[in-house]
Amino acid sequence: MIRVDRGRLSLPAGFAQKAMSALRKARRLRRRRLLESGDFDREVYGHREVKKALWRMQHKKCCWCEQRLGCRSEDVDHFRPKTKARRAVKRYDEGYWWLAYKHDNLFFSCAGCNTLKGSWFPLQARARPLQAEEHPSTRHEAALLLDPAKDDPAQHLVFIKDDGAWRLTALNRSRKGRTTIQRVQLDRDDLDELRDDWVADELRPVRRRFEQARRQQDLDAARAEALRLCTPERSFSLLARCYFVKHRVLRQADLP
């Protein structure tokens, strides 16, 4: 994960009006019965132009795993789930239906992360959930999932070398980091394989060139190459940061 800058989001014209209309419909349905997933208008929050705007905001990457992806076949993720909120293995609350069309509750996600995250939205013990129509900007909810647009994942997550491979873990035993890894399964095998390939194909060659440059006392170009792999535009940039700091190619103070 890496922090997402919502200031980069440029939603298509007409989105706000369509969102208001869809939300009015959701309110009417809720007054009569419990809202179901099929009651929400995917053509509003999941419209191809909305998805494309989120995709561009996130540098064409999944907000959770940082895979660089095409836009068409992937998902729009509701950070706070719209239909039901799963707090524990067998405990569910009503979802955050009133946030279903709020742009600041939407992210671009790969299908794998979105499916595994599902309706999970755990809170700290004895935390009071948001009530209907309350917005998280006006009241703290004590969520245990990292919000990619509000939390800095680098303060909660770190990659460490484990038995020759780089694995994601919670930094300083961060509970939010641990919960996010667990509920989105950010340590799953397919991601580990992709990251291992990224280290072998992209990161390790830069490190080798840096070691050669060190002997020649010409480090600027090698460091610049490493820094480019740490920018938000690149896949697995948090992994690159951890890798290059660990191997002393970069210092923490060098990172963007």
Provide the fold topology.
Blueprint: H1 15-32, H2 42-45, H3 48-57, E1 75-78, E2 84-88, E3 91-94, E4 106-109, H4 111-117, E5 157-162, E6 165-170, H5 175-184, H6 189-216, H7 220-229, H8 237-246
Antiparallel strand pairs: 1-4, 2-3, 5-6
Helix pairs in contact: 6-7, 6-8
Features:
256 residues; alpha+beta; two-stranded antiparallel ribbon; 6 strands; 38% helix; 11% strand; elongated
Describe this structure in words.
This protein has helices at 15-32, 42-45, 48-57, 111-117, 175-184, 189-216, 220-229, 237-246; strands spanning 75-78, 84-88, 91-94, 106-109, 157-162, 165-170. Helix 6 (189-216) packs antiparallel against helix 7 (220-229) and helix 6 (189-216) packs across helix 8. The model has no long low-confidence stretch (mean pLDDT 94). It has a two-stranded antiparallel ribbon with strand order 1-4. Strands 2-3 form a two-stranded antiparallel ribbon. It has 256 residues and is α+β, with helices and mostly antiparallel strands.
